[in-house]
Amino acid sequence: VQLVESGGGSVQAGGSLRLSCAASGFPFSTAAMNWRRQRPGKLLEWVAAIDSSGDTTSYADSVKGRFTISRDNTKNTLYLQLNSLKIEDTAMYYCDLGGLRGQGTQVTVS
User: Fold this and answer.
1) Do the strands 2-6 and 9-11 form a parallel or antiparallel pair, or are they unpaired?
2) Which residues contact 87 (CB under 8 A, 6 or more apart)?
3) Which helix (H) or strand (E) holds 108?
4) d(CA 35, CA 102)
5) Nearest-CA neighbor of 94 among 17, 23, 2, 3?
6) What is the secondary structure of 12-79 as a DSSP string?
7) What is the pLDDT along the chain (110 residues), one digit of tens a residue?
8) Distance CA 85, CA 56 (A)
9) Residue 33: how many CB atoms within 10 A of its CB?
10) Pairing between strand 9-11 and 105-109?
11) Dihedrals φ, ψ of 88, to 5°?
12) Based on C-alpha coordinates, what's the Rg of the chain?
């Protein structure tokens, strides 16, 4: 299993980013996926989830209405669109398959 996150960066409050997670080594199209994040000095927290087809999504209250999780099963890729970013969204973001995660991608909001 390999999960490779990308798309992070530094952005001003109110800005947007699109994170990607390239997945390989498992049948991506049959797997529910999650995004999690770890803010400075905080524990890892769940951000969003999507079912295998992409039809059903769910979000943490802290990001609901601002973040959108999606997937492209033809490209084995998971996405997280981050809009209306806040300083408190600063974190390392990880895609997650049942507890398996990649190296993460850093999002810094100032």
Assistant:
1) unpaired
2) 13, 109, 110
3) strand 105-109
4) 11
5) 3
6) -TT--EEEEEEEESS-GGG--EEEEEE-TTS-EEEEEEE-TTSS-EEE-TTTTTTEEEEEETTTTEEE
7) 999 999 999 999 999 999 999 999 999 999 999 999 999 999 999 999 999 999 999 999 999 999 999 999 999 999 999 999 999 999 999 999 998 999 999 999 99
8) 23
9) 21
10) parallel
11) -75, -5
12) 13
Handedness of CA 47, 82, 54, 6 (dihedral sign): negative
Judge contact between 63 and 69, C-beta under 8 A: no
Phi first, then psi: give them for residue 22, nearest 5 degrees: -85, 125
- Rounded distance, CA 62 to CA 50, Å? 17
Tell me if 25 sits within 8 A of 81, measured CB to CB.
no
